[in-house]
Design goal:
Chain A: Keywords: Cell membrane, Electron transport, Flavoprotein, FMN, Heme, Iron, Membrane, Metal-binding, Transmembrane, Transmembrane helix, Transport. The structure holds 2 protein chains of 2 kinds. By secondary structure, chain A is an all-alpha fold. Chain A is 79% helix and 0% strand. Chain B has 2 domains: 44 residues, no CATH class; 255 residues, Sulfite Oxidase, Chain A, domain 2 (Alpha-Beta Complex). Classes of the chains: A mainly alpha, B alpha+beta.
């Protein structure tokens, strides 16, 4: 069954990964343009804030899907993972910037909100944890850290992405279903990584 | 969304209301002459009377008032009600009025409106989510209706209930709230002249997404208190349950008066963003009782408003 993926994989090999960066910038440019033109409805600030956060979350979920897709479906997307992850970071950074500059506006209130409002605290923690990941998403940092340390650092993703979804669950009024779909998808993707046999083996290997 | 017609006139460029009212009267008079002076010429609007309680602030655009709504029975997105509320049938609407009243019964909209004078009340409207609008409501004082049904001396609260029609309301399929939506006021709050039953906006019949055919408007409280599409009004002795309070009592109290000093647990209530202000609209400070303190502050004399939020 896995060889069915071969033509797709070989076609994907010809797609340069850098192409994702300009492609990923297009929706953001469109969003601000639509906001200025008045196409985002009567509350463009909330609309831009929401879409940037949601698309950022989608991209981060996509990075979590890459390993399971390769392992269980034979689809090789790992070449694109860095670009997808960095784009996710840029979207979340833009989401944060819109919240700071266009939404809350008042610096004193921003600090109060970050410290006092749990959903903002959680969102900020997730964002801060993403910064070292974004800074080390390049070949130079990978070489400097060495593969094992780099991988250990980037396991922070397993914490960052669920925190992002929890932030979404908490920001909406009442118990709405959409954020829970994302949280469930993330937990599912993380669960696919749990391989008890392998964990036991690696633990005993570490002891010897 | 793209390509939607965009009005780039500002409010100040629009013909002043007094001017078009005059023009309308001229047209009506001309039509009346043409029809041989027959009374009852069809009018475009509800011809609501101006009120001393109206703010002089510029109303939020009709587009914003009718496309940016919280009406979870039609979906949780702000644009869901405008998209889905056309499914609601308002013909033959009835309001049951019961509990501690002298004349309990079921009222048609004609009964409800018989003998009332519709007024235009331009009120500030402050949502608990920290956005605000200025809405030109059309309605009458709730006290008028309560006086007609005769409130018994033992009544202390008024409970309200929204229609629950799963076949017309796609939002009630999810349990985001415990349906039907219910709200309540203390009797003195209900009898305050600022409290109205609204049947229109912008001198037109109430759009479904805004709570047709009849809704409550309590301008000094957060918007969710102003319950929409009411089918039942009950006078009670005990404080009635209210939907958002049942869903999350720590965040939404029974009183829910607009109060910049009492934060929502998840966000500050000190400031608000005016809907329709565009991308770079500045936040403005939220006023105690949404600016209606002169009319309503005395209702809460001696009450700790941080405790009774």
């Amino acid at each position: 069954m896995l060889h069915l993926m071969d033509p797709i994989n070989s076609a994907l090999r010809r797609v340069p990964a850098w192409l994702l960066y300009p492609l990923g910038a297009l929706p953001v440019a469109w969003l601000f343009w639509a906001g200025i033109r008045g196409d985002l409805g009567v509350d463009p600030v909330k609309a831009i804030e929401h879409w940037l956060g949601l698309w950022g979350l989608w991209l981060l979920i996509a990075t979590l899907a890459i390993t399971p897709l390769q392992r269980h479906a034979g689809l090789r997307l790992v070449r694109f993972r860095r670009a997808i992850g960095l784009l996710g970071f840029y979207y979340i950074a833009a989401h944060l910037a819109v919240w700071l500059v266009l939404d809350v506006q008042i610096p004193a209130q921003i600090w109060g909100d970050i410290l006092k409002r749990p959903y903002i605290t959680i969102g900020m923690v997730a964002f801060v944890l993403m910064i070292p990941l974004a800074l080390t998403s390049n070949n130079w940092a990978l070489r400097r850290l060495g593969g094992e340390r780099w991988r250990r650092l980037h396991r922070l993703t397993y914490l960052v992405v669920p925190l992002g979804a929890v932030h979404f669950v908490m920001v909406v009024k009442g118990w709405q279903v959409e954020p829970f779909y994302y949280l469930a998808a993330i937990l599912g993707l993380l669960a696919l990584r749990l391989r008890p046999g392998r964990m036991l083996r690696s633990r005993s290997a570490a002891r010897t | 969304m793209a390509g939607r017609w965009k009005n780039d006139l500002t409010w100040s460029q629009v013909t002043p209301k007094a001017a078009w009212l005059n023009r309308r009267q001229v047209i009506a008079a001309a039509a009346g002459l043409a029809a041989g002076g027959i009374a009852g010429v069809a009018r475009a609007g509800l011809s609501a009377k101006p009120s001393q309680y109206s703010t002089v602030e510029e109303p939020t655009s009709y587009e914003a008032v009718t496309t940016y709504n919280n009406f979870y029975e039609f979906g949780t997105g702000k644009d869901d009600p405008a998209r889905n509320a056309h499914m609601l049938t308002t013909e033959g609407w009835q309001v049951q009025i019961d509990g501690l009243v002298d004349k309990p019964g079921t009222w048609t909209m004609d009964d409800v409106l018989a003998g009332t004078t519709l007024e235009e009340r331009i009120y500030r409207f402050r949502c608990v989510e920290a956005w605000s609008m200025v809405v030109p409501w059309v309605g009458f004082e709730l006290a008028d209706l309560l006086n007609r049904v005769g409130v018994q001396p033992s009544a202390k609260y008024v409970a309200f209930e929204t229609a629950l029609r799963p076949e017309e309301m796609p939002g009630v399929r999810t349990r985001v709230l415990d349906w039907p939506y219910v709200e309540g006021l203390r009797l003195d709050e209900a009898m305050n002249p600022l409290t109205i039953m609204a049947t229109g906006v912008y001198d037109e019949p109430m759009p479904n997404q805004n709570g047709a055919p009849i809704r409550l408007v309590v301008p000094w409280k957060y918007g969710f208190k102003s319950i929409k599409s009411i089918v039942r009004i009950t006078l009670t002795e005990d404080e009635p349950p209210t939907s958002w309070n049942k869903a999350n009592g720590r965040e939404y109290g029974f009183y829910s008066n607009v109060n910049p000093e009492v934060s929502h647990p998840r966000w500050s209530q000190a400031t608000e963003r005016e809907v329709g202000g565009g991308l770079l609209a500045k936040r403005k400070p939220t006023l105690m009782f949404n600016g209606y303190g002169q009319e309503v502050a005395s209702l809460y004399d001696g009450m700790d408003l941080a405790k009774y939020y």
